[in-house]
Amino acid sequence: VEIVEDNQGLCVGESITLHANYDPEYTYRWIHNSSDSASALVSFVGQTTVTATNICGSSMDTISLSRIKDPIANLGGDEMILCNGESATLRNTTQDNSYAYSWSNGSNADSLIVSNENEYTLYVTNQCGVDSSTISTVVLNTPQVDLGDDVQKGNQQLLLKNSLQDRRETYLWSDNSSLDSLIATQSGTYTVAVTNPCGTTRDTVNVTITLGINTLAEVGIKAYPNPMSDLVIIDNERNLSGQIQLYNALGQLMTQQELHTGIQHLDVSTLVSGAYKLVIVSDHQTYATSMIKK
Q: H or E stretch including 205?
């Protein structure tokens, strides 16, 4: 007797009908199965034996059935980053001799060489079914960075930003901040390192911020009376903080005190008659007005 069966694998949950060569003079007995015919329905893996008997004796045959797992497609992630000019090989992370492969671009190879930015899908098939995996390739250049030319600004902050921003970049500025831009509030040399998976590029810019002089009226501070006599009343309506300074016509500092909120007094009783300049310095800004002492 001989079991005639080419397929010797079972998928999960699958049954298979095994056939022995048929002879009407034979009686059949299957091990692990109640069938007494020339065929038997089997749903388990391992060895199955059939015995055939006639008046001349008996013979047997055995077949081993193995478990075939469902196919698994896995390209290793949803995204692959390539640097410009590079190529990479896509292949299924799980290899099995029972698998057949097909790709979304028509290839039937077990691997695919890619160098362009695109989306690729792999279909993996065996007798138990089909599975798929999709990956997107992203092509990046080495980072480019340009903070512009050295710059001088008067009496203001300056926004520093890379004019050549691209994808997948991280930033590290010379003050250890990591945003994609930096506000420069004082003069100095500023450097940024721009990094992506293809490398790091740096650029440096020199910033000079000059303190311009605005009038007290522009910032909402009043100083009176003018001409002044013994006291100057400072009305700090905007509640700024800083320093009050009074200079004579020669540019000499005659007196100074802290700037407080609300109204305060500046004692000028000891000053001689003449022209003076009252200066308020607040948050790197300078405000001034001319005063006369009677």
A: strand 199-210
Count the neighbouring beta carbons within 10 Å of the beta carbon of residue 293: 20
Half-sphere exposure of 241 (CA within 13 A, CB side): 0
* Helices and strands counted in the chain (H then E): 1, 26
Please say whether the beta carbons of 234 and 258 come within 8 A.
no
Beta bridge partners of residue 192, listed in sequence order: 173, 203
pLDDT in the model for residue 51: 92
Coil, strand, or helix at residue 126? Answer: strand
Among residues 277, 272, 279, 280, the alpha carbon closest in space to that of 291 is found at 277
How far is it, in rounded angstroms, from Cα 105 to Cα 166? 28
What digits encode the pLDDT tens for the residues 108-121? 999 999 999 999 99
In tens, the pLDDT along 197-245 reads: 999 999 999 987 655 556 777 778 889 999 999 999 999 888 888 889 9
Question: Cis link prior to 225 (omega < 30° from 0)?
Answer: yes
DSSP code for 228? B
**What tokens appear for 210 in the block?**
């000059």
Contact 192, 170 (CB under 8 A): no
Give the angle 113-114-120 at the CA atoms, nearest 5°: 105
Asked whether the beta carbons of 209 and 153 are under 8 A apart, the reply is: yes
Q: Using CA atoms, how far apart are residues 60 and 17, in angstroms rounded to an integer?
A: 17
Q: Which residue is listed with tokens 């008997």?
A: 53
Task: Please tell me the distance from the alpha carbon of residue 29 to that of residue 47, in angstroms, as a whole number.
Answer: 14
DSSP string, 47-82: EEEEEEEETTEEEEEEEEEEEEPPP----SSSEEEE
In whole angstroms, what is the distance from residue 131 CA to residue 123 CA? 6
Polymer length in residues for the chain: 294
Write the CA distances from 217 to 123, 225, 244, 262, integer angstroms: 74, 14, 15, 15
To the question of pTM greater than 0.90 for the whole model, the response is no
